[in-house]
Amino acid sequence: MLRKKFADILHKIQQSSSCHQKYRHVLIKLYNESSFDDFECEFMRCTELLFGMEIKQKNIHAERSVEFLSSFVTTLVNSTLKKPGEDLSEDSDQDVEMHPFLNAVVNNVLQYQNLEQMSARYRCCQFINLLLRQLGDDAQIDMDIANLIQTAMLERIIDVKPNVRLQAVKVLARLQQPDNPDCPVIQAFLHRLYESSAQVRREVVESIALIPSIIPKIVERVRDSDPNVRLAAFRKCSLVGPKMITISNRQLVLDSGFTESNSSVKKFFLEDTLPKWLNVYNDDYLLLLKGLKLDAYEEDLKKTEVISRKVLEVFFKSKSLSLLEHLPIDENKLIPIERLSSETALFWCILAGFLRESDDNEEHLSEIMPELTHFCTFIEKYYNETKRKQLMEWQYLEYQQILCQLLKIVKEYDLSDEVGRQTIQKLLIYMLSDGKFNGCVITEIIFIMQKINPAMDSFTIQICHIVSDIHEPLTEQLPSPKTVYQTQFQLAELRVKINVLIDERDEAVANADYDRASVVKKQLIELNRQVEEINSAMTSQKMERNPRNDPETLCKCLNILIGLLSNPKLTVLTASLRSCKDEFIRPLLSNGDMEVYSKAFKCIALYCLLDKQLAQENLKRICLPIISYRLMPEYDKASLFIAIAAFSDVLRKYGTEIFNDVAENTVMSDTVSKRRLNGTRRLFTNTAKDDVDTSDIDMSGYESIIEILLDMLDDENQELREQSGMALCELVRHGIAVSPTLISRLILKWLNPLTEKHDQKLQQLLANALVFFARFVGDGDELLEKAVIPILTSLGNAPRTSPLADVDIDSALSFIAAITSIQKPVGFNNIHKNLAFAVCEKIAPRPDDKCVPLYVKMLLHLDPVLKDAVVVRELIDQAQLIIDELSDKFAKRNMQKFVHKLSEILADLERETVEPTIENSPLLQVLDTNREETAASEMRPRHSINESNLEPILKDIPTNNNNNLIQAKSNRVVILSNVRVDNILPNTSTFPKPTDESVTTDANVELSQKVNGCLPTPATDQNRVNGAHISNNAYVNMWKQNLLRSDKENDIRDEQTSKKETTNQVRKSLFTGVSNSVKRKKRRTRSSLHHTMHSDSDETILH
């Protein structure tokens, strides 16, 4: 009776969910009326039947049943518990008394969690999940039951099936203990964040408790490969808010959101995450920018500026005028210096740029932009006040950042006002000559000065004069003490003479000797003039140029030149720059200070990008730090980074031919030097950097330099790895100096687990470069094809101690298959077909090699586009030969799967091309008219076949010196010769024909590619006369003979002929290393087929 009632209830609740509430009460009433043991037994019998149901396809009836049974249990339990509003604080320290039926159900259901049947494990986890979820947010369960569930679900969270793991995660979400730092559930969730199933990762992100140690792990998921996981991570970041996230992770979240490719995820980020973050800072944009600021290094400031610009751009589009209210400017449209900070300066600069670019809000630009003269005065005042202060390192970086933003605001001005233009130019020259700035400020100053003076010749002369004034300023030359003493003595002597002459003049006047008085007066005038000249010479200051060769001054001059040479509008080398190089920069290459040397080296590298002649002259110097990396354990990191970037830029601008030119010049110079030496020997000296002998450096090729750069990818220095990877990626993106070795090494670096763990930036660079190379570079498909086998060989031969031994092989093969299947915008490349032949050729000589399982597994990941039945058969035959030689069971099984895949392709080709063609062939007309007679009698002659109907077919059959066996069977013709053909197509007049029995391999390959299942082209009359072995009449008789054969005889013949080698020359070229056992088997097959051919041929002719 109880079982019948259970069956009726379960039958009705499966039909609709609307009746669940009604039958829950019915079942509760039944529970109260029945004994506990009987009800429990019947309830568990229902769950046992339910758990044993297969779930390969979603069953809505089973889902409703599980939901109903779990909701019944929770309803029954909640009816006996305290109400949610009651105070449970008094009982908080006591064990919670659980409903006996709940304990019984949980204990019985958990017995299914470790069964082998996947459906039982899934339903068990699903039932417990629904049970805990429907208990309510304030529910409490017994500690023993909780531990029992937790232990079981911790086992299921590592289940082999992702659906089971997903349900286990949902169960464990209710069992987390955020207050416990060693909570096993949270630790298990952390491991599941990196698992293969995207659904499980998303559920973990949504369910995990938000504690400080977990937040960085959630932030990492905004870079997940699945968009649903990224969306869940952004939801969590919106919920947490920016103040619970570190500044670097805030920038990571924002950068990931702005670069998001999925539209729904990006929409949520822009419409939900950003407004919520701004709301945390009370809608204050300046506070938001301050919360995003990183100021430890100059690179951090640049990244902060980029992200801040993107954030403000989003808000500017929706509420542009509200941004103006947050700019703290006074009545003069200037920010007070005491309120000027990096955030306000950045906000001012970004806002001015937005208003300038916006057509609708350009009239508001005048509200925040002061007059240029006043703004110049403001910049000068801030500069003069700040330079006198003693600044710490972070304060100095902020000061440089503020100046940079103010100068960017200057670029927004029109500069058509002559007074304002002269004012800003005077200010910039003063700042450039007086201050010490970083590269960002110097670049902005150079840009504005070039905008004021667009003529490049006069502009470079102006900058070179500034550099000259800094390096050799005009200084006052003070007289020496000896000179001062001599001058004073001379003055004293002249004064004595003047006094004597005054006395003589007075005496002459007293004696009325006016002639004498006149002479003395002239002498006094002359002496007074000499005194005045000496006094004026002493008071006048002599100005001379005094060179300043201290490292600080030299670095300042070099920074200005680097800013000038880096200007993108400078495309030619002017005369002033040439003289500056010869007179100032080149001598500094022998300077002992490493910072001065590295900056001078960078100037030379920039010079090389402006003139090819200079590049040829200095190419050895550029490559010297890279070559020294291998030779010396200690190296100058700054110079090495400059050399790597310069090598990449020179190759991309001038091509690889520049190395050939340098090699030719080197040979000529060596010849001249040998003639000049005449048997002399140069003595050894301790040379400086400028005198390093680079004559022994082999510059005949760039391959050795690229090989060194590849070795740098494994260096312990992360900056060096990123710099070398960036240089190589730029070469790959431009398709310059790219080889299969380079591509294979880069792909292996991308696959390396250590790269994903420690070099995420390098991994992104490599991925972007490789995808761009495969999609857009002209010969990228050929180079990728040649790089695949070396990659597989390296992975297969990787020792246990190598990081490549930990590579996920399936993911690696999927990546290789994906990147080789990328199609270019124009044209079609079938790399997978070529790879299939290449891999088979690699396996054939050494079928017992340790890499063979990897090669065979690669074949399964390939998806070749095969439209030629002959090519498919060739591949099948080659695979069959390999299967016979393989000893590894795993590799043999995968090879058989590959053959099965090819067989399906061949069957599709035959259905698509063979059957429609045969319907239109003359032979089919003959066969259709006589099919009934053939079925009625095997040996009765078919008089309905006449030679006139066969003439179109017979003309298409070539005649050569080989004995051809023609077998006809209702719908197929097989030609056993140099080319095997299984199909008949009507038009065969365009195909080439063999004229000699020794057909070359290339001819066979070309013929195989053009045949597409058709008969070869008919032989000409000359060929038919020279090479005919069987006449047309004999062919007619042979057709009659073969058409009258029984199905059994034809099946036996097909089985024999299927073993024949097809396209012998092509296979010979591909399988030069086939083992002796395979060769013996082939010889036995050929001999048996040769015997069959001769016997059938003789029988046909005699008939």
TrEMBL record:
Coiled-coil regions, chain positions: 491-544
Q: What is this protein called?
A: Nuclear condensin complex subunit 3 C-terminal domain-containing protein
Q: What PANTHER family does the entry give?
A: CONDENSIN COMPLEX SUBUNIT 3, CONDENSIN COMPLEX SUBUNIT 3-RELATED
Taxonomic lineage: Eukaryota, Metazoa, Ecdysozoa, Arthropoda, Hexapoda
**One protein family per Pfam:** Cnd3
Gene3D superfamilies attached here?
Leucine-rich Repeat Variant
Stretches of Basic and acidic residues bias are at 1093-1103
**Subcellular compartments:** Chromosome
Entry keywords, A to Z: Cell cycle, Cell division, Chromosome, Coiled coil, DNA condensation, Mitosis
* Annotated Basic residues bias: 1078-1092
